[in-house]
Amino acid sequence: MTKTVYFLPMTKSHRVRILAYEGCQLLDVSGPAAVFGAANEDRKVPFYDLAIVSPDGGAVTTNSGVALQSQKIGGQPDTLLVAGGSAGLRAAMAREDVRQWLRKAAPKATRFGSVCTGAFVLAAAGLLDGKRVATHWASCDRLADTFPALSVDAESLYVVDGKVWTSAGVTTGIDMALAIVEADLGAATANLIARHFVLYQRRPGYQSQFSPMLQAQAAADAPFAALIDWMQDHLDRDLDVPTLARHAGYSERSFYRKFTEATGKTPAHFVEDLRLDAARTLLSKGLSVKAIAGRIGLKSSGRLGQAFERRFGMAPSLFREMHAGG
To answer: On the chain, which terminus has fewer CB atoms closer than 10 Å, C or N?
Structure first.
Protein backbone atom coordinates (compact mmCIF):
# COMPACT_ATOMS: atom_id res chain seq x y z
CA MET A 1 0.00 0.00 0.00
CA THR A 2 1.44 3.36 -0.99
CA LYS A 3 0.63 6.90 -0.02
CA THR A 4 -1.43 9.03 -2.38
CA VAL A 5 0.61 12.05 -3.39
CA TYR A 6 -1.10 14.53 -5.68
CA PHE A 7 1.61 17.11 -6.49
CA LEU A 8 -1.00 19.29 -8.15
CA PRO A 9 -0.04 21.32 -11.23
CA MET A 10 0.83 24.97 -10.76
CA THR A 11 -1.36 26.32 -13.57
CA LYS A 12 -3.66 28.00 -11.04
CA SER A 13 -3.99 28.48 -7.30
CA HIS A 14 -5.55 25.62 -5.39
CA ARG A 15 -8.73 27.03 -3.85
CA VAL A 16 -9.14 26.13 -0.17
CA ARG A 17 -12.40 27.09 1.50
CA ILE A 18 -13.02 26.58 5.21
CA LEU A 19 -16.67 26.75 6.23
CA ALA A 20 -17.24 28.65 9.46
CA TYR A 21 -20.47 29.60 11.22
CA GLU A 22 -21.62 31.36 14.37
CA GLY A 23 -20.21 29.57 17.40
CA CYS A 24 -17.72 27.40 15.52
CA GLN A 25 -14.45 26.34 17.16
CA LEU A 26 -11.81 28.99 16.44
CA LEU A 27 -8.89 26.57 16.21
CA ASP A 28 -10.78 24.34 13.77
CA VAL A 29 -10.57 27.27 11.36
CA SER A 30 -7.37 29.05 12.31
CA GLY A 31 -5.24 25.90 12.71
CA PRO A 32 -5.66 24.54 9.17
CA ALA A 33 -5.71 28.09 7.76
CA ALA A 34 -2.32 28.78 9.36
CA VAL A 35 -0.88 25.63 7.77
CA PHE A 36 -2.11 26.51 4.29
CA GLY A 37 -0.95 30.09 4.73
CA ALA A 38 2.50 28.92 5.79
CA ALA A 39 2.71 26.73 2.67
CA ASN A 40 2.40 29.91 0.58
CA GLU A 41 5.32 31.65 2.28
CA ASP A 42 8.55 31.99 0.31
CA ARG A 43 6.80 31.00 -2.92
CA LYS A 44 6.83 33.40 -5.87
CA VAL A 45 3.29 32.36 -6.69
CA PRO A 46 1.10 31.29 -3.74
CA PHE A 47 -0.06 27.71 -4.15
CA TYR A 48 -3.19 28.01 -2.01
CA ASP A 49 -5.98 30.50 -2.57
CA LEU A 50 -7.36 30.45 0.97
CA ALA A 51 -10.62 31.90 2.21
CA ILE A 52 -13.00 31.45 5.12
CA VAL A 53 -16.62 31.17 4.02
CA SER A 54 -19.87 31.23 5.95
CA PRO A 55 -23.59 30.94 5.23
CA ASP A 56 -24.16 34.71 5.18
CA GLY A 57 -20.66 36.14 4.77
CA GLY A 58 -19.24 38.94 6.88
CA ALA A 59 -18.11 38.65 10.50
CA VAL A 60 -18.57 35.26 12.18
CA THR A 61 -18.17 35.08 15.95
CA THR A 62 -16.40 31.91 17.09
CA ASN A 63 -16.88 30.05 20.37
CA SER A 64 -14.03 32.02 21.95
CA GLY A 65 -15.55 35.38 21.06
CA VAL A 66 -13.01 36.08 18.32
CA ALA A 67 -14.71 37.25 15.11
CA LEU A 68 -13.53 35.98 11.73
CA GLN A 69 -14.14 37.82 8.48
CA SER A 70 -15.69 35.55 5.87
CA GLN A 71 -16.99 35.40 2.34
CA LYS A 72 -20.49 34.14 1.55
CA ILE A 73 -20.57 30.48 0.51
CA GLY A 74 -20.39 29.93 -3.22
CA GLY A 75 -18.05 28.98 -6.02
CA GLN A 76 -16.14 25.76 -6.51
CA PRO A 77 -13.32 25.00 -4.07
CA ASP A 78 -10.58 22.45 -4.70
CA THR A 79 -10.27 21.64 -0.99
CA LEU A 80 -13.33 22.16 1.19
CA LEU A 81 -13.22 21.78 4.97
CA VAL A 82 -16.01 22.30 7.51
CA ALA A 83 -15.12 23.50 11.00
CA GLY A 84 -16.61 21.96 14.10
CA GLY A 85 -18.32 23.61 17.00
CA SER A 86 -20.95 23.15 19.66
CA ALA A 87 -22.98 26.34 19.73
CA GLY A 88 -24.34 26.92 16.25
CA LEU A 89 -23.64 23.41 14.97
CA ARG A 90 -27.29 22.38 14.77
CA ALA A 91 -28.18 25.63 13.02
CA ALA A 92 -25.45 25.04 10.44
CA MET A 93 -26.67 21.47 9.88
CA ALA A 94 -30.23 22.68 9.39
CA ARG A 95 -29.55 25.38 6.78
CA GLU A 96 -30.73 24.22 3.38
CA ASP A 97 -28.50 26.71 1.54
CA VAL A 98 -25.44 25.21 3.28
CA ARG A 99 -26.50 21.67 2.45
CA GLN A 100 -27.18 22.55 -1.18
CA TRP A 101 -23.80 24.24 -1.62
CA LEU A 102 -21.99 21.32 0.00
CA ARG A 103 -23.81 18.81 -2.20
CA LYS A 104 -22.87 20.80 -5.30
CA ALA A 105 -19.29 21.69 -4.41
CA ALA A 106 -17.98 18.64 -2.55
CA PRO A 107 -18.29 16.03 -5.35
CA LYS A 108 -16.38 18.28 -7.76
CA ALA A 109 -13.61 19.13 -5.28
CA THR A 110 -10.22 17.43 -5.20
CA ARG A 111 -10.99 16.62 -1.58
CA PHE A 112 -13.50 17.63 1.07
CA GLY A 113 -13.80 16.98 4.75
CA SER A 114 -14.14 18.32 8.25
CA VAL A 115 -12.41 19.16 11.48
CA CYS A 116 -13.88 17.86 14.73
CA THR A 117 -17.71 17.97 14.76
CA GLY A 118 -17.79 19.55 11.31
CA ALA A 119 -18.47 15.95 10.24
CA PHE A 120 -22.05 16.45 11.43
CA VAL A 121 -22.59 19.19 8.84
CA LEU A 122 -21.27 17.01 6.01
CA ALA A 123 -23.31 14.05 7.24
CA ALA A 124 -26.46 16.18 7.36
CA ALA A 125 -25.88 16.93 3.68
CA GLY A 126 -25.64 13.20 2.94
CA LEU A 127 -21.99 13.37 1.93
CA LEU A 128 -20.55 10.83 4.36
CA ASP A 129 -22.80 7.83 3.70
CA GLY A 130 -20.71 4.69 3.39
CA LYS A 131 -17.54 6.50 4.48
CA ARG A 132 -15.20 5.86 7.39
CA VAL A 133 -14.82 9.12 9.30
CA ALA A 134 -13.31 10.66 12.42
CA THR A 135 -14.66 13.21 14.84
CA HIS A 136 -13.95 14.35 18.39
CA TRP A 137 -13.96 11.40 20.81
CA ALA A 138 -16.77 12.93 22.86
CA SER A 139 -19.04 13.03 19.78
CA CYS A 140 -18.27 9.63 18.21
CA ASP A 141 -21.30 7.83 19.62
CA ARG A 142 -23.64 10.69 18.77
CA LEU A 143 -22.38 10.85 15.18
CA ALA A 144 -22.75 7.09 14.74
CA ASP A 145 -26.24 7.05 16.27
CA THR A 146 -27.47 10.06 14.29
CA PHE A 147 -26.04 8.94 10.95
CA PRO A 148 -25.91 5.12 10.87
CA ALA A 149 -24.97 5.05 7.17
CA LEU A 150 -21.41 6.13 7.97
CA SER A 151 -18.70 4.35 9.96
CA VAL A 152 -17.04 6.24 12.82
CA ASP A 153 -13.38 5.55 13.57
CA ALA A 154 -13.27 6.49 17.24
CA GLU A 155 -9.51 6.02 17.52
CA SER A 156 -7.70 7.80 14.69
CA LEU A 157 -6.57 11.42 14.72
CA TYR A 158 -7.70 11.78 11.14
CA VAL A 159 -9.07 9.48 8.46
CA VAL A 160 -8.73 9.59 4.69
CA ASP A 161 -11.40 7.61 2.82
CA GLY A 162 -11.10 8.34 -0.88
CA LYS A 163 -11.48 12.08 -1.31
CA VAL A 164 -13.04 12.49 2.15
CA TRP A 165 -10.68 13.79 4.87
CA THR A 166 -12.03 14.00 8.43
CA SER A 167 -10.19 14.73 11.66
CA ALA A 168 -10.85 14.35 15.35
CA GLY A 169 -10.89 17.21 17.83
CA VAL A 170 -9.41 20.68 17.53
CA THR A 171 -5.60 20.42 17.11
CA THR A 172 -5.91 17.34 14.88
CA GLY A 173 -7.06 19.73 12.15
CA ILE A 174 -3.45 20.93 12.05
CA ASP A 175 -2.19 17.36 11.66
CA MET A 176 -4.64 16.74 8.84
CA ALA A 177 -3.80 20.02 7.11
CA LEU A 178 -0.11 19.11 7.22
CA ALA A 179 -0.96 15.77 5.60
CA ILE A 180 -2.90 17.62 2.88
CA VAL A 181 0.10 19.88 2.24
CA GLU A 182 2.31 16.79 2.04
CA ALA A 183 -0.05 15.27 -0.52
CA ASP A 184 -0.02 18.48 -2.58
CA LEU A 185 3.53 19.77 -2.17
CA GLY A 186 5.58 16.94 -0.68
CA ALA A 187 6.87 15.89 2.73
CA ALA A 188 9.71 18.41 2.78
CA THR A 189 7.28 21.34 2.68
CA ALA A 190 5.00 19.82 5.33
CA ASN A 191 7.95 19.06 7.61
CA LEU A 192 9.29 22.60 7.20
CA ILE A 193 5.92 24.02 8.28
CA ALA A 194 5.78 21.70 11.29
CA ARG A 195 9.26 22.81 12.28
CA HIS A 196 8.30 26.46 11.84
CA PHE A 197 5.29 25.88 14.11
CA VAL A 198 7.63 24.32 16.71
CA LEU A 199 5.53 21.15 16.81
CA TYR A 200 6.89 18.34 18.95
CA GLN A 201 6.20 15.91 16.13
CA ARG A 202 3.99 15.46 13.11
CA ARG A 203 1.25 13.08 14.17
CA PRO A 204 0.08 10.49 11.63
CA GLY A 205 -3.61 9.81 11.15
CA TYR A 206 -3.45 6.31 12.60
CA GLN A 207 -2.24 7.64 15.96
CA SER A 208 -4.97 7.20 18.54
CA GLN A 209 -6.93 10.02 20.14
CA PHE A 210 -6.42 7.97 23.30
CA SER A 211 -2.65 7.63 23.63
CA PRO A 212 -1.63 5.72 26.77
CA MET A 213 0.61 8.61 27.74
CA LEU A 214 -2.15 11.22 27.57
CA GLN A 215 -4.78 9.05 29.22
CA ALA A 216 -2.52 8.22 32.12
CA GLN A 217 -1.32 11.77 32.60
CA ALA A 218 -4.93 12.92 32.75
CA ALA A 219 -5.89 10.30 35.33
CA ALA A 220 -2.76 9.88 37.42
CA ASP A 221 -1.73 11.97 40.35
CA ALA A 222 1.50 13.96 40.37
CA PRO A 223 3.98 11.17 41.33
CA PHE A 224 2.72 8.89 38.56
CA ALA A 225 2.57 11.66 35.97
CA ALA A 226 6.28 12.27 36.58
CA LEU A 227 6.95 8.52 36.50
CA ILE A 228 5.18 8.17 33.16
CA ASP A 229 7.37 10.90 31.69
CA TRP A 230 10.41 9.00 32.94
CA MET A 231 9.12 5.71 31.51
CA GLN A 232 8.58 7.31 28.11
CA ASP A 233 12.22 8.43 28.07
CA HIS A 234 13.62 5.08 29.26
CA LEU A 235 11.73 2.44 27.28
CA ASP A 236 14.97 0.58 26.58
CA ARG A 237 15.39 -0.21 30.30
CA ASP A 238 13.95 -3.06 32.31
CA LEU A 239 10.70 -1.44 33.45
CA ASP A 240 9.56 -4.10 35.88
CA VAL A 241 7.58 -3.46 39.06
CA PRO A 242 10.61 -3.31 41.39
CA THR A 243 12.28 -0.72 39.15
CA LEU A 244 9.16 1.41 38.76
CA ALA A 245 8.21 1.17 42.45
CA ARG A 246 11.69 2.22 43.50
CA HIS A 247 11.66 5.17 41.08
CA ALA A 248 8.20 6.27 42.32
CA GLY A 249 9.12 5.85 45.99
CA TYR A 250 6.61 3.12 46.88
CA SER A 251 6.79 -0.43 48.09
CA GLU A 252 6.17 -2.91 45.28
CA ARG A 253 2.77 -3.99 46.58
CA SER A 254 1.61 -0.42 47.19
CA PHE A 255 2.94 0.74 43.82
CA TYR A 256 1.19 -2.03 41.88
CA ARG A 257 -2.15 -1.29 43.52
CA LYS A 258 -1.97 2.49 43.29
CA PHE A 259 -0.63 2.55 39.72
CA THR A 260 -3.32 0.16 38.50
CA GLU A 261 -6.03 2.22 40.18
CA ALA A 262 -4.68 5.46 38.71
CA THR A 263 -4.17 4.30 35.11
CA GLY A 264 -6.67 1.47 34.73
CA LYS A 265 -3.87 -0.86 33.60
CA THR A 266 -1.33 -3.06 35.32
CA PRO A 267 2.26 -1.76 35.11
CA ALA A 268 3.18 -4.51 32.63
CA HIS A 269 0.27 -3.73 30.32
CA PHE A 270 0.93 -0.03 30.54
CA VAL A 271 4.61 -0.45 29.67
CA GLU A 272 3.66 -2.58 26.67
CA ASP A 273 1.24 0.13 25.52
CA LEU A 274 3.99 2.74 25.68
CA ARG A 275 6.43 0.51 23.81
CA LEU A 276 4.02 -0.38 21.02
CA ASP A 277 2.95 3.25 20.66
CA ALA A 278 6.62 4.18 20.28
CA ALA A 279 7.12 1.29 17.84
CA ARG A 280 4.44 2.65 15.51
CA THR A 281 6.08 6.08 15.47
CA LEU A 282 9.51 4.62 14.74
CA LEU A 283 8.16 2.28 12.06
CA SER A 284 6.54 5.25 10.32
CA LYS A 285 10.03 6.78 10.15
CA GLY A 286 11.35 3.71 8.31
CA LEU A 287 13.51 2.17 11.06
CA SER A 288 14.15 -1.56 10.98
CA VAL A 289 12.19 -3.87 13.26
CA LYS A 290 15.42 -5.07 14.89
CA ALA A 291 16.62 -1.54 15.63
CA ILE A 292 13.24 -0.54 17.06
CA ALA A 293 13.05 -3.62 19.29
CA GLY A 294 16.31 -2.58 20.94
CA ARG A 295 15.26 1.03 21.35
CA ILE A 296 11.96 0.24 23.05
CA GLY A 297 13.19 -2.54 25.32
CA LEU A 298 11.67 -5.59 23.64
CA LYS A 299 15.14 -7.07 23.06
CA SER A 300 14.37 -9.01 19.86
CA SER A 301 12.47 -8.44 16.62
CA GLY A 302 10.56 -11.66 17.32
CA ARG A 303 9.15 -10.34 20.61
CA LEU A 304 8.22 -7.05 18.96
CA GLY A 305 6.54 -8.85 16.07
CA GLN A 306 4.44 -11.03 18.36
CA ALA A 307 3.32 -8.13 20.55
CA PHE A 308 2.66 -5.86 17.56
CA GLU A 309 0.56 -8.43 15.70
CA ARG A 310 -1.39 -9.25 18.84
CA ARG A 311 -2.23 -5.57 19.38
CA PHE A 312 -2.64 -4.23 15.84
CA GLY A 313 -3.39 -7.30 13.74
CA MET A 314 -0.49 -6.91 11.33
CA ALA A 315 3.24 -7.46 11.18
CA PRO A 316 5.51 -4.49 11.98
CA SER A 317 7.08 -4.76 8.51
CA LEU A 318 3.68 -4.35 6.85
CA PHE A 319 2.86 -1.37 9.04
CA ARG A 320 6.18 0.24 8.06
CA GLU A 321 5.43 -0.38 4.39
CA MET A 322 2.02 1.25 4.73
CA HIS A 323 3.06 4.30 6.73
CA ALA A 324 6.75 5.06 6.28
CA GLY A 325 7.39 8.25 4.35
CA GLY A 326 9.05 7.94 0.99
So the answer is: N
